[in-house]
Amino acid sequence: MDSVGKVTYITYSGIPHLGHVTWVSLLKLIAKTRVISYKEVLIKLPTNEIIIAEGLRPTLISMSLKPLNKCIVAIALSPSILNKKAHMLYSRADVIIAVSEMVRQLFNPEKIVVVHPRPPDLEHLIKLNVDDKKPWICYSGPLIPIKGIHIIPEVVKHITRSANNVKMIVMGAGDTMSLRRKSKELGVEDKIVIAGPLPRPKVINTLRHCSIYMQPSLFDAFSIAVAEAMALANVPIITKNVGSKDLVEKLDRSLIVSYDSEAIAQIILTILSPKNTQELGKNAREIVARELSLKNTARKLTEVLERCLKHAY
């Protein structure tokens, strides 16, 4: 696509979101692409380019560049899109990248291209040995309210009434004290390992041994952690407001549940046997490898750029 010209990808810090690292690598193969932070915009002023903005502040500053450039692309990925003013800001973009079908439904469909985030090392993850699975349920991510993590001790309480050999492993930075306190109140502190923040290699190694991955978010535009877990043959159990249900529904729609501790526990107990988790985990791996392939991602990014060129001319 020689006619694309230049692309400037603007982020908060100058580093793309983990799930977008591959996007940038592919964009560099398609067009002359640079990555800058929103603070560098006035110094490295882009003109006559395609601007791709990742996040609220980069999108805000990108709007001021509209008269100087071909097209503004906003990536709608954070909970901020639920805010009325933020939603209006994203809607002003010429093209919007929605990171899931759930996000797509929040905007004008004529402006939308759905591009799923992907683990940057996906090809490596799907080749790792995952034969040594344990009766572990895992969570990996920020320990913040919107991730729904405060429901975890309740889920474990319900599960251990029927399956006493299960362990819940929680990985991530945030409010570990509240989680520990609630676990103790419910008498399940010996069933929940609150590991705190771990280096990525340790997270990946832990997920290799997990059988089930739980994402109980109140809202998650996508959740790269679900894709990573599926790549490591975890069976994903997610709530209905998690955008990666685009992947999970191709595995089994019953794995997508309401935000309710009993409902989550019940589906976990239903699939907990090694035979079930092995088969579902194998299928999960195949689905994420296919749906998030480099070919599919490159095709979607090309569609974004083509939409921009149509807008510009």
From TrEMBL:
Pfam families found in the cross-reference section: Glycos_transf_1 (PF00534)
Stored Gene3D superfamilies: Glycogen Phosphorylase B
GO molecular function list: glycosyltransferase activity
InterPro entries: Glyco_trans_1
Glycosyl transferase family domain ranges (all copies): 127-286
Keyword Transport: no
Keyword Transferase: yes
Alphabetically ordered keywords of this record: Glycosyltransferase, Transferase
PANTHER family tied to this protein: D-INOSITOL 3-PHOSPHATE GLYCOSYLTRANSFERASE (PTHR12526:SF510), GLYCOSYLTRANSFERASE (PTHR12526)
Protein name (database record): Glycosyl transferase group 1
Organism this protein belongs to: Caldivirga maquilingensis (strain ATCC 700844 / DSM 13496 / JCM 10307 / IC-167)
Lineage: Archaea, Thermoproteota, Thermoprotei, Thermoproteales, Thermoproteaceae
